Amino acid sequence: MQPRPAAKPQVTENVPRPSWKTLPRSIWALGLVSLFMDVSSEMIHGLLPVFLTGTLGVGTAMLGWIEGIAEATASITKLFSGAISDRVGKRKPLMLLGYGLAALTKPLFPLAASATTAFAARIIDRVGKGIRGAPRDAYVADVTEPAQRGAAYGLRQSLDTVGAFAGPLLAIGCMLAWRDDLRRVLWVAVVPAFIAVGILAVWIREPEHGPSPAEQRPNPLAWSAWARFPTRFWRLLAVAALFTLMRFSEAFLVLRVQATGLDAAYAPAALVVMSGTYMLSAWPAGALSDRLPRLALLVAGCGVMIAADLLLAFGGPGVLVWAGIGAWGLHMGLTEGVLAAFVADFAPADLRGSAFGALNLVRGIFVLVASVIAGALWSAGGPRATFLAGAAIAAATALAAVALLRSKRAST
């Protein structure tokens, strides 16, 4: 039996409209795993910039390097984990390894006595993210009908972002209750990470159809496998690179609100606002992309990002900065699930893990570049220089998306 070719997404009258009732239960379980892990991660990430720059004395340029290298490490790891999941024909073992590794590294953050330890903890945590990322994204496509992929990715992103929304809020509450005791709050963040691993171990199952025999599965790292990807997939990677370049680490959003004079205990509120708009928009945007051209949502997301950067560049300590952070989250809701659905649409079915790995490798390289540039611009010209550069790149990204992805097949 030959591997099944990638199914073309079609919308017919026989296909139910995207709804939480029609999506597989495993998508909900996977969303809960992401939710609890993000509660843990965002409790830490919401305070980490303050912890590094305030407690451990790290400069903003070095923060850019730390954030960039950490995210790049995760993305490079995704390339190999995605390929391995295609080769072995299973997704869950790598997801369990990745989430488990991330959970085990959470205690290193409150134990950190130097920037080196915190940096090592961040890298190891991102390796765990890298191991689980591509197999998880491929799993969503494995268990979901093609006509509902946008909705499935949108729902998982929304549940993921519920955790990203709740984590900083919990961090703020703990900081206020414990009078800015950073290390104590970081210890609390360890608990939800292990809950996430438990849900994954008990409730996630491999697809019922199972993998094809080993001898019929391709070697994902062989040139013959990569040659099977269509041209539009490589064009999508180019567009994804620009999307990443325009959106550097969210750590700079935390620093932006802190620069307005906000107390350190409330600094995670930047991630609360961003995650709130991301959470509310990801599911509707994903479901809408199953009915409307996906390209239209990507371009709209670029427009929202331009507005976000301008608000962050020119806003004072008042509402404009917070509106910019909200727009940043809206941009993510409009684009993240849609990019994932594009990858699932364009990739051969038996190479989906490799496809998501390739996407995340490209994004990892460019998030490193973006974060380093953002840190350097911030050091040289302050937040205005950083966010104006982001706005310019967002405009270029919109033009590139239209030029490279505009076709009847690519936009369905």
Explain this structure to me?
The protein has 412 residues and is an all-alpha fold. It has a single domain (25-206, 228-405), classed as MFS general substrate transporter like domains (Growth Hormone, Chain: A, Up-down Bundle), CATH 1.20.1250.20. 75% of the residues lie in helices and 0% in strands. It has 15 helices and no strands. It has helices at 25-55, 60-88, 92-105, 108-111, 115-143, 149-177, 182-188, 190-203, 223-226, 231-246, 251-259, 269-289, 294-314, 319-346, 352-405. α6 (149-177) runs antiparallel to α12 (269-289) and α10 packs across α15 (352-405).
Offer a few descriptive terms.
15 helices; Growth Hormone, Chain: A; mainly alpha; about 400 residues; about 75% helix; single chain; about 0% strand; disordered N terminus
Strand segment tally: 0
What's the tally of helices? 15
Largest sheet: none
Secondary-structure element order, as H and E? Answer: HHHHHHHHHHHHHHH
- Report the average pLDDT across residues: 84
Count of folded domains = 1
What structural class is derived from the secondary structure elements? mainly alpha
Question: What is the CATH domain class?
Answer: Mainly Alpha
- The amount of helix comes to over 70%
The shape is: globular
- Termini separation (Å)? 29 Å
Query: If classified by CATH, what would the architecture be?
Result: Up-down Bundle
Residue fraction in strands: under 5%
The CATH topology: Growth Hormone, Chain: A
In CATH, what is the homologous superfamily?
MFS general substrate transporter like domains
Whole-angstrom Rg:
20 Å
Unreliable spans? 1-15, 408-412
